[in-house]
Amino acid sequence: MSHEIESNVRFQCKKTRTPLDHEYLNSLEKYFGHTNESTIEKLQNFPKYAPQKNIISFLSKSEIFKKILDVHGAIVECGVLFGGSLMSWAHFSAIYEPINLTRKIIGFDTFEGFPGRHEKDGDSDFGAKGDFASHSYEDLQECARIYDMLRFKNHVPKIELVKGDFTKTGKKYLVENPHLVIALLFLDFDIYAPTKEALDIFVDRIPKGGIIAFDHLFYKGTAGETVAYMESVGLSKYKIERFTWDPLISYIVKT
């Protein structure tokens, strides 16, 4: 008789995880804690420990980043959680374009969990108010400080975090930053209301050649993301592209 296996991956869609998935994650965590390397040596050898799913996502984001190297503007990430994706963009910028002082990485999140579901999020129980509360705002500020230590031209800030409900902070940010141009808009809010708001206020800030990327478009558990895109942009306006190795991340190039 099968039994439910839990893992320490707190923020996930549990219905999409099999018992073997949890067993794998538990084995990986145990292995991470019992090897003879120091913490910094483990970080230097991260492919030994990172789940394949996360390496896939990292590679996809690198490919997306390379597509906007010649597009002027910031990278705006909507939905930050613990900051792995946000810091990926930051590292890509430091590696691929170290002299680009205007390429800011801007992350929007409540850092206190989902603000609540909308009827257009469908019948999934994913996204309830307060779920996925990472409380990582201060942690990421320290992460950004350390990241800047060896970054070329580090006197110019690269990472900016905007805390709060995006339906309230988004327009306020534009009022305070009327110069904003967006080369890449990465949507990972997962739910309808903030995703719709982001598309409505940011699409006109994206120049030709800029990209809108999605973490969960065409995904039943996060139906609100697809509904928001259909209402604000429409499925027939742009080709929705993907990578052969990644089942989740998709993107459009604004033409």
Describe this structure in words.
With 255 residues, the chain is an alpha/beta fold. It folds into 2 domains: 18-49, no CATH class; 53-253, Rossmann fold (3-Layer(aba) Sandwich), CATH 3.40.50.150. It is built from 8 helices and 7 strands; from the N terminus they run H-H-H-E-H-E-H-E-H-E-H-E-H-E-E. The protein has helices spanning 19-34, 39-44, 52-67, 84-96, 137-148, 166-176, 192-202, 223-232; strands at 74-78, 105-109, 159-163, 182-187, 211-214, 241-242, 250-253. The protein has a 7-stranded mixed β-sheet, with helices on both faces. A hairpin with a 7-residue loop joins strand 6 and strand 7 (250-253). Helix 3 (52-67) crosses helix 4, helix 6 packs parallel to helix 7 (192-202) and helix 7 runs parallel beside helix 8. The longest helix has 16 residues, at 19-34. The model has no long low-confidence stretch (mean pLDDT 93).
Q: Can you summarize the main beta sheet? A: 7 strands, mixed
Shape: globular
Q: Average the pLDDT over all residues and give the rounded result.
A: 93
Strands, count:
7
Q: Cα-atom Rg, whole angstroms?
A: 18 Å
Helix percentage? 25-40%
Widest β-sheet, arrangement of strands: 3-2-1-4-5-7-6
Low confidence ranges: none
Describe this structure in a few short sentences.
It is built from eight helices and seven strands, in the order H-H-H-E-H-E-H-E-H-E-H-E-H-E-E.
